[in-house]
UniProtKB/TrEMBL annotation:
Annotated Gfo/Idh/MocA-like oxidoreductase N-terminal domain residues: 9-124
Species assigned in the record: Microbacterium azadirachtae
Any one Gene Ontology molecular-function term assigned to this protein's record: nucleotide binding
Protein name (record): 1,5-anhydro-D-fructose reductase
Keywords recorded for this protein, A-Z: NAD, Oxidoreductase
Gene: afr_2
């Protein structure tokens, strides 16, 4: 760690809504020091630093990653900027936590992984779902056979985040429902069923190529399947379920950040009349377990976290690339 303090110095790059939630949750991580924040807009940078009690604000990214008291850089900028910012931070000797998606495609994810290994620095995609106590417990129950042999997964995430012609969404920024919302559905499907053997998918896109809504069926060996859907312009029930030969479990909305799930299992009577509810306390906005895990890993000298290694991020990006390439002639609006 830095010579100035035994605390771990965190820097936040980007001052959007997610950055505010992450910065707030850092207050609950013992030993985390809110060192610096960066934004292209000097007023936003200083306002963020004041509101979230960071030591200082930068309008020069190069100055931020040169600061000796910054150990971990959390990147929450537009998708298209994740890779250049991550590479610069890693080359400057910083550890990085990159808000999902880690890049716009699998090639970028592999580039970041190579840079992290070359610089012997920690790098991880900010897939907070994987660190959620509820999600960890659900995966453990599935692995224990509580639902029997798993046959299918359903995961959907549709929330209207703004007007479909919003300038905030652009191809230049890497805007994408596939990368923003569907990444959670694919991560869940892959965690439960493994690597898909086939994919059938379609999407609705804008004229500039930004995908606004999509649905996909992932096909797995043995007749298993996952039904996925995502949208940034309309509601699609933001829950998920896992089904098997002995029952099913449902992750409550929003499934990617839930604190609970319900398991229905056993014979018909028990499955319908005696479900088991599992509820877990949520720390802060839900990012605390991930942030704590990253800090512990960095302090221990790890360059990846075993709960979400770079190989898994790359594998998910490979599936997202396959979904995109499988789209039928897109419906544009």
């Amino acid at each position: 760690m830095n010579a100035q303090s035994t605390a771990v110095g965190w820097a936040v790059v980007g001052t959007g809504t997610v950055s505010h939630a992450v910065a707030s949750d850092l207050r609950h991580v013992e030993g985390a020091r809110r060192a610096a924040v960066w934004s292209r807009d000097v007023r936003k940078a200083h306002a963020f630093a004041q509101q979230q009690q960071f030591d200082r604000a930068y309008v020069s990214f190069d100055q931020l990653i040169a600061a000796p008291d910054v150990d971990i850089v959390y990147l929450a900028t537009p998708h298209a900027t994740h890779t250049p910012f991550a590479l610069a931070a890693l080359d400057a000797g910083k550890h990085v936590l990159v808000e999902k998606p880690i890049g716009v495609d699998a090639a970028e994810a592999r580039t970041i992984a190579r840079a992290a290994r070359a610089n012997k620095r920690f790098a991880m995609e900010g897939m907070w779902m994987r660190f959620s106590p509820a999600y960890i417990a659900l995966r453990a129950e599935v692995a224990s056979g509580a639902l029997g042999d798993i046959s299918s997964v359903r995961a959907t995430f549709g929330l209207p985040f703004g007007a479909k012609d919003s300038p905030a969404w652009s191809a230049d920024r890497g805007s994408s429902t596939l990368l923003d919302q569907a990444i959670y559905t694919v991560t869940l499907a892959r965690d439960i069923l493994g690597e898909p053997a086939g994919i059938v998918s379609n999407a609705t896109t804008r004229e500039d190529g930004v995908d606004l809504s999509l649905h996909a069926t992932l096909l797995f060996d043995g007749g298993r399947f996952a039904q996925l859907a995502a949208s940034m312009v309309t509601y699609i029930d933001p829950t998920a379920s896992i089904s098997g030969t002995n029952g099913w479990a449902t992750l409550a909305a929003p499934f990617w950040a839930t604190d609970r799930f319900r398991r229905h299992s056993g014979d018909f009577g028990d499955a319908f009349d005696a479900p088991v509810d599992r509820v877990f306390p949520q720390e802060g906005h839900g990012y605390v377990p991930m942030l704590r895990a990253v800090q512990v890993a960095v302090t221990a000298g790890l360059t990846e976290h075993p709960l979400h290694p770079l190989t898994d991020s790359i594998a998910v990006m490979d599936v997202l690339d396959r979904i995109r390439s499988s789209w039928l002639p897109a419906t544009s609006i």
